[in-house]
Amino acid sequence: MEAAAGWRCRPGGRLDMSHGFVRHIRRNQIARDAYERAVRQARGRARGRLTSTPPRPRRPDQQVYRPRRPGGPGGDASPGPPSPTDTRGPRLFCLEYEGDDGRVTAVIVHQGDSAEEVTRRVCARSPLEPALRRALCQRVQDELSKRRGTG
Hints:
The chain is of the alpha+beta class. Helix content is 37%, strand content 10%. A two-stranded antiparallel ribbon has the order 1-2. β1 (91-98) and β2 (104-110) form a beta hairpin. α2 crosses α3 (130-148). The protein starts with 20 loop residues before the first helix and ends with a helix.
């Protein structure tokens, strides 16, 4: 069987590679590799943040719970000599008063505190009129008696 008129074969059955087709494919592969390497390096330089936290909060209107640290403000883990608050007994509740200016005053009420003493501590931080002072004293007295079990 003879070879077709348009087909030429080299001796030994090898293909005629003089057309340069494979050379173009190799040149395209090398150019693509160089381009991908340049893109990868540019991405590496552009990546400035390596932290795991997002750059902005996902839902800014959603409140996030942050627990208090022991030994810090409001923490109970304070080894050492007893502080003056330990002599007044265990904590009963935290009284928070919001003034007309929007400032919140927080006072921790202990078992041994009197209503007058708590009212005096609140008034030291945010002054009150005498009528409001008496109302606060009565309200604290009601809460103390309720929590102590005498009311």
